[in-house]
Design goal:
The protein has 370 residues and is of the alpha/beta class. The protein folds into 2 domains: 8-168 and 332-351, Rossmann fold, CATH 3.40.50; 173-326, Dihydrodipicolinate Reductase, domain 2. The chain is built from 12 helices and 14 strands. An 8-stranded mixed sheet has the order 8-9-10-7-11-12-13-14, covered by helices on one side. The chain has a 6-stranded parallel sheet with strand order 3-2-1-4-5-6, sandwiched between helices. It starts with 7 loop residues before the first helix and ends with a helix.
Length: 370
């Protein structure tokens, strides 16, 4: 995978991405009220963070439903190449305003931060434009298809002095927090083996942008499996070496042309070993109910892969732990961390650097693929 030139024809034919003829945006300072809050002049709860979604697709609706449960932390606006679509989202999710272009949202001085929620091909372009306009950025995962784009955005972030949070919601979900705590507490002793399973039969329709690798950045594992690779690498021990194994591809089904399965084998820096089983062409109970395990020298942690239940060793019998259903996918915790970083001037847990480490592992998966 590599960065290729983005033509105006590419943008218009896809119906998404920055509008043709977008003029260069000048960098603008934060609104005075938010700047004073960041400097501790007024209480941080005085005024919500003004947020604008760049893109009005499915994932924006997912984010918006979760934001509605965060109270007054954020007030959201919606930007689309289609103004009516932006207005529809604004009405559905009680938004503050609608924009008929991404540039219009970036030029709005009242906007403090944006969510880049378009296909990965345009993530870097919009993120850099937002930073140059003085906005904080939360960019959907996978953040950028290439290492060069990560470096481009990192330079723009440092120059702008703004926060960039990568939308790896799985990092924040209650399951991940629970597993980190159990391993840190030594509940199973030294980790020996790890098995992560995410399989389901979820074909994409023919017109879904994920069928186009130039938009998605890669195949199904690159676009979605990154969440599971991050989970495997975020529990305490860090992945030191990784290999990918690709099953023989099947013919396109129901219009889904993607390569949809990958087995990833890896070793941790502690000497433990693990495997990740990923597929979007294998039927499963309830469209994705599967079990994963962490094997240690003092016991085994078994967990439902989506985070509904965890079984850990107890004194006499296994302990059943419900990590939490209210924020099972971690979106609310992710936005709370984004808000904290904006108000405190710090770095989010899912920083560019942390996401770049995930990208480096993904590069190994494809470079060492059998």
């Amino acid at each position: 995978m590599h960065v290729r030139a983005r033509s105006e024809q590419d943008r218009s034919s896809a119906g998404i991405g920055p509008e043709p003829g977008r003029r260069q945006l000048s960098r603008k300072p934060l609104r005075p009220a938010l700047r004073r809050r960041m400097q501790g002049v007024v209480p941080p709860t005085t005024q919500p963070i003004q947020l604008a979604f760049l893109g009005c697709g499915f994932i924006t609706s997912v984010h918006s439903r979760q934001l509605a449960r965060l109270g007054d932390e954020f007030v959201a606006g919606y930007a689309s190449r289609d103004l009516q679509r932006a207005k529809d989202y604004c009405r559905r999710f009680a938004g503050s305003r609608a924009y008929g272009s991404y540039a219009a949202a970036l030029e709005d001085e009242d906007v403090d931060a944006v969510v880049v929620a378009v296909p990965p091909r345009w993530h870097a372009e919009l993120t850099v434009a937002a930073l140059e306009a003085g906005k904080h950025v939360l960019v959907e995962k996978p953040a950028f298809p290439t290492r060069a784009e990560y470096e481009l955005v990192r330079a723009a972030r440092d120059d702008a002095g703004r926060v960039v949070c990568v939308g790896e919601n799985d990092h924040y979900k209650p399951l991940a927090v629970t597993l980190r705590r159990l391993l840190a507490d030594g509940v199973i002793g030294d980790l020996v083996l790890a098995q992560f399973t995410s399989v389901a039969d979820r074909p994409k329709p023919a017109d879904d942008w994920r069928n186009d690798e130039t938009l998605a950045g890669g195949d199904a594992f690159f676009e979605e499996g990154i969440h599971w690779l991050h989970l495997a690498d975020s529990l305490g021990p860090r992945i030191a070496e990784v290999h990918g194994y690709r099953p023989a591809p099947a013919a396109a089904r129901d219009g889904d042309r993607r390569l949809r399965s990958m087995l990833v084998a890896f070793t941790y820096d502690t000497g433990a070993a693990g495997a990740l089983y990923y597929s979007r062409e294998i039927p499963s109970v309830l469209r994705g109910l599967r079990w994963s395990k962490l094997y240690g020298r003092r016991g085994v942690i078994t967990f439902e892969s989506n985070g509904t239940i965890v079984a850990a060793p107890g004194r006499r019998t296994p302990r059943l732990i419900a990590p939490g259903l209210a924020d099972i996918r971690g979106y609310r915790a992710m936005y709370a961390d984004f808000a904290r970083a904006i108000r405190d001037g710090g770095s989010p847990e899912m920083s560019l650097e942390r996401a770049l480490a995930d990208h480096a592992l993904m590069e190994q998966v494809y470079d060492r693929q059998d």
